[in-house]
Amino acid sequence: MAKPKILITGGCGYIGSHVAKLLVQNGYEVVIIDNLSTTGKKIPYGKFYQVDLAVEEKVEKILKEEKPEAVMHFAASIVVPESVAFPLKYYRNNVENTLKLLSAMSRAKVKKFVFSSSAAVYGIPKTIPVPEDAPLEPINPYGRTKAMIERVLEDLSHAEALDYIALRYFNVAGADPEAELGPAYNQPTHLIIRALKTAKGEYPYLEIYGTNYPTPDGTCIRDYIHVMDLAEAHILALEYLLDGGKSLVLNCGYGVGVSVRQVVEAVKKVTGVDFKVIETERRPGDPPVLIADNRKIKSLFSWEPKFQNLEIIIQHAWAWEQKIK
Predict the structure, then answer these.
(1) CB–CB of 120/138 below 8 Å?
(2) Where in this chain does the record put each NAD-dependent epimerase/dehydratase domain (predicted)?
(3) What is the pTM assigned to this prediction?
(4) Residues spanned by CATH 3.90.25.10 within the chain?
(5) CA distances from 77 to 8, 87, 124, 150, 161 (A)
(6) What is the pLDDT of residues 213-257, one digit of tens each?
(7) The CATH number fitting domain 5-173+224-252, selected from 3.40.920.10, 3.40.50.720, 3.30.870.10, 3.40.50.300
(8) Which sequence positions are flagged as catalytic?
(9) How distant, in Å, are the alpha carbons of 5, 78, 173 from that of 142?
């Protein structure tokens, strides 16, 4: 029996592309909407439309013609410091355009939705690891946009029988183990990517933002999750919804924290390059520690990560970086 059609927004981006590949490998028919603003090129998976979510009538037309069983929404602006500097850009892209997508879905009668949320909704959590029922107290515009859409989804689920899963990502890293896909940001800000590009010689040095946090080595601690383990979580979430599951919010992380300094040392070990590191001031909007309580997703979906190892994450990302040089 053929598997249903799934529409992915932002399907040519970092996470969306890995999910698209895994969907196709699992027998799903995939339709991608992407404006190519962050990557500049489409991927070899699924039927592609170069459309901006701001153009609601075009999105609605695609939904009505393609008739997907579910929408997986990855299209968003994601850089925390940029959100602090340019909040209107973030509210327009992450909130306004998501509302347009949801409105188009409502008219096209598409009732299942997987949403890319973020651990940024927690702000500076009082409990570590942070559980899903922790208060939502985001400390930057990016986190606030994600929290706002979660509230919208909750209201829609009561008003229109929309079933959704919001997956709160922690720090996504790594690349397709086959090095076919990987992070392709025009201006990368993620630590591992920038460290690898510094090792390649693309940057003269790597900056560490803040060394006086209340952590063992003074740098921020994050929960890094391999992008393919995250993609697998999306497939499980989708299958849950297609099987009639009700709306959920789930953390996606390993439940293990790694400091900035530990990441830098691991990158140097994997690449064999002792690149220059400069310590500088904190960035606005960075909480000291973010680690997932992932018991809920593990128990509900029997999710078992395959790549839970920092060096493996870096090795896969390094193979991708060397391929695109």
Answers:
(1) yes
(2) 6-253
(3) 0.96
(4) 191-222+255-289+300-323
(5) 16, 10, 21, 16, 28
(6) 999 999 999 999 999 999 999 999 999 999 999 999 999 999 999
(7) 3.40.50.720
(8) 142
(9) 30, 7, 19
